[in-house]
Amino acid sequence: MTTKPATPLVELRGLAKHYGEGETRVDALRAVDLDLWPGEVVGLLGPSGSGKTTLLNLVGCIVEPSAGVMRLDGETVWEGKWLRSDLRSLRLEKIGFIFQFHNLLPFLDVTENVALVLDMAGRSKAEAFGRAHDLLDYLEVGHRKTAKPSSLSGGEAQRVAIARALANRPRIILADEPTAALDGERAGIVMDLLRKVAVEQAATVVVVTHDEKIWDRFDRIFALRDGRIVSTEAPAPGG
Amino acid sequence: MNLALRDIRHHLGRFLLTALGLGLLLGVVLSMIGIYRGLVADALGLVRAPAAELWVVETGTRGPFAEGSRIPGDTRESIARLAGVAETGSMTFQSLEAAHRDRKLRLQVVGYEPGRLGGPPEIAVGRGIARSRFELVADLKTGLALGERVTLGGDAFTVVGLTRGAVSSGGDPVVWMALRDSQELQFRLSPAPARREAARGPVAAGAPDTINAVVARVAPGASVDGVVEAAKRWKHLAAMSQEDQETILTRSVVEKARQQIGLFTTVLLTVSTVIIALIIYTMTMDKIREIATLKLIGAPDGRIVGLIVQQALALGLIGFSVGASLIASVKDFFPRRVVMLPEDAASLGLVVIVVCLVASGLGVRLALRVDPATALGG
């Protein structure tokens, strides 16, 4: 393993999330401590209700933590309260999302889906579309630049979704079941792409998955149960 | 990158069909306004036809259109002698229904003295009345042809001229005839007791020399109000300016119709607002996942609100254009006049914009409440 940089990209200290109060209180995540480093691809595993999606939502600044401290890319974003008023611009700047069902906007073509993120970030049209074309070529879907999402295969759609997630060069990439709809070969290709991005862009990739066929692709795997990280392990060689 | 435009293009067929439906509704709204304008134009057309500046009628009445008015036939000579009066004319007005060529013919009959005020404003085909009896100038809407003979009140009249677009406030086409003919017609068609009383009098052999109004025009520099005041000194007469007569027509004669149409137009606009709101709400519901995705990847609220509001405005404006074009192309086929004024269309266009903004509120509220986490998972 290479030497770790001084600052983790994701730094969680005692991060917790509960819903409701009193008898109806449900602890979705209990005092999680976690450091994720540039270049890492990590997996979050666990049964339904174990807290995987809650953890992903917390790191994605989609839901507000109940306690703890959260730092993203060196910036403390939550400590008893949100320290950034505009969470959407935070997500736009620092986080890329990859979804199980791609979530490409059906009324935009492939290039526009990717360029939209850059357009929202205030880039010029030429810059946005240029970067989108480069990314699509890099992810080997450049030949489908003008296609509508409905005409893409599952693998193509997922690569376009990855291109969109990478468009604004985020340092943190959160993927929710990115290979669930893909066969083993295509799932492997997607994981290889994520690995390549993590290394080349010094990003950290967090993947929530039930997909056993990709467990050997992670640097570390965090197993969650009842809102706690119950084990941290590197996958066995050869899967 | 305009998301609203791209979403519209993606569902172009559905969007255009929706806009067409909305257009039909807005077309009905526009036609209601046009029908009201037509009603006023028709009513004013008849009162403006003599090009008079003052009207003299029976005292205590607001005749001859809002109420019945009967004054002696020699009133015109009295009015003509007033200082400042340049031109005068005696007139009668009555509506009647006659059978002609196996169909009913509803007419507004106007009697006037050829050569004096009160005749048809413009002859489109043929000539004006030249003979003292039994000639007609009819509006084209009567369906009568030049030279055709039509029997009214037992006498046969020959159509010698045709006008275009002259109708009463009730929508009946106007025919002009010589004053003496119209007096005979009124006498013959008046109720039996009136005929009996008339038969006892000195004019038993013919129609009484009664008219409904005297119209007059004042000399350049003379005051209409002065002549009106002078005419009012005769106790059996009332006088009013052209402006007063038009006000009576628009405020009294067509007031109920105006209120009815106004209320119906308000109901239609309310229905349109609800329909636009439901359409926009449904369109937003269809995009919940896309909106959640936009929020998740960092789209600001303005971008999402813009998507919904721009689509609402596009729907409204396309619908309005469809409706306006439709009514403009079929308005001449309506049985009554439909007048489309540019200012009415512009006003309705503005109302549609406001309605779309209000109607998009529901969709915007829904969109702003979408949880970005909705985009995650299946």
Overview of this protein structure:
The complex is a heterodimer of chains A (239) and B (378). By secondary structure, chain A is α/β, with parallel strands linked by helices. Chain A is 30% helix and 26% strand. In chain A, the strands form 2 sheets. Chain A has a 6-stranded mixed beta sheet. In chain A, strands 2-1-4-5 form a 4-stranded antiparallel beta sheet, with helices on one face. In chain A, a hairpin with a 6-residue loop joins β1 (10-19) and β2 (26-36). The longest helix of chain A is centred in the C-terminal third of the chain and has 17 residues, at 184-200. The mean pLDDT of chain A is 87. Chain B has 378 residues and is of the alpha+beta class. Chain B is 50% helix and 19% strand. Chain B has helices at 3-10, 12-48, 75-80, 179-189, 192-200, 224-231, 242-253, 255-285, 288-296, 301-330, 342-368, and strands spanning 54-58, 71-72, 85-100, 103-112, 125-126, 135-139, 149-152, 155-163, 174-178, 210-211, 213-218, 237-241. In chain B, a hairpin with a 2-residue loop joins β3 (85-100) and β4. In chain B, α2 runs antiparallel to α8. The model of chain B has no long low-confidence stretch (mean pLDDT 87).
